[in-house]
Amino acid sequence: MEERINVLSPSFRANPYPRYAAMRTSSPVCQVDPGGMWAVSRWDDVLFVLKNPALFSSQGFKAALEPPWIGYNPLVHSMVALDPPAHTRLRGLVTRAFGGGATRRLAPKVERRAEELAGKLVGDVDFVEAFAIPLPAFVIGEILGLDSSLHVHFKRWADEIVAITPEPSSAEHAAQVRTTIAELSGYLRQVVAARRQAPADDTVSDLIHAEVDGHSLTEEEILDFLVMLLLAGLETTTHLLGSSMLFLATHPALWEKLRGDPALASPFVEEMLRYDGPAHALPRITTAEVTLAGMTIPPGSLVLVLLASANRDEHHYADPDRFDLDRAAQGSLPFGHGIHACIGALLARMEVRTALEVLTRRFRRVELGAGEIRYNRTILVRGPVALPLRFS
Ligand code: HEM
């Protein structure tokens, strides 16, 4: 029997794409470590899973991100981890905050903040720290109406909650993550209390006054919701900014091309989302026995839906390992599909496009700086967490 792939091993995390390609060819539905989860790697099968929430439940988030050592993880009690009908009711509440109108209203503020941050990119910098974290933190802070002094904490909160593993790496690690969850919930509880006293024009106030089937949301439901929005809007966009700039720093001709024609920022973002998008896998749990690509998956199994592999499926894209600005990659799966498809997709695209327009306008060159490029170690999202760049 072939040795099982460990999706958390450093060699897999460093570059999972060749392993994804091998999986698609020889074992498109197979078990992987840790824990013998089932991985689904081909485009058609990924789409099948996402189109069938009754068979593949989003309670998979609970199985993946709330192991017993954690206690309570607000993320896995939020909308992203719910199935219909509870999911359907909650989803209606937030779509307004992330639609085209809201995104257009935010665009000038995003551009101003991107200009400010770009002004500090002098010489050698860690791009993640200096730009890729603060920009999405600012945006989600604006939407939720959170105090800007808290932005510096957002990323640590997000990192620790998204990186939860079946076992903690140490007792200290376990204590740290539990403290982070308590800290984040405690802070958001204060924000909710303040908005109850003095409502504002923001998502927190909207949630307090929202009614679902004639009932207001409970305090816990509001907190779970806010944690989910904070994490969903942060981690992914930071990684897309980082991966985009890493690619451009190592492909100077492409940087030149974007500098020459700012309209190319949009197709660049689309192809980057397909080629090396941040959302690698989504967790689902089977509600019944199901046969997929000839493999029988038992009920109650944790399934990893490999979006990043589907986005490189050779049966769907010609020459999928080539970055092709002319590909028109719309229709790829970087934001998921179906009832849980990302509600922040317009916003995320706008943030990264604006950032690229600002950066290509300001800098003639960008290249790799001294120091190590480090990647995160989570199963669900992937991107650089340290990216030394030199701007000139
Ligand atoms: C859901 C990706 C940015 C809010 C999702 C899903 C994916 C995804 C793949 C589907 C989850 C599932 O099916 O289980 C991304 C990527 C982003 C990004 C790649 C950036 C490049 C954002 C932003 C926000 C956001 C900026 C908002 C601030 C959400 C929410 C959901 C979601 C609320 C849950 C939707 C539901 O359960 O119905 N995202 N996302 N995302 N995303 Fe995003």
TrEMBL record:
Pfam families listed in its UniProt record: p450
Record keyword Cell cycle present: no
UniProt xrefs under InterPro entries: Cyt_P450, Cyt_P450_B, Cyt_P450_CS, Cyt_P450_sf
Alphabetized Gene3D superfamilies for the sequence: Cytochrome P450
Keywords: Heme, Iron, Metal-binding, Monooxygenase, Oxidoreductase
Family as reported in the entry's similarity comment: Belongs to the cytochrome P450 family.
Protein name: Cytochrome P450
Origin species: Polyangium mundeleinium
Origin organism lineage: Bacteria, Pseudomonadati, Myxococcota, Polyangia, Polyangiales
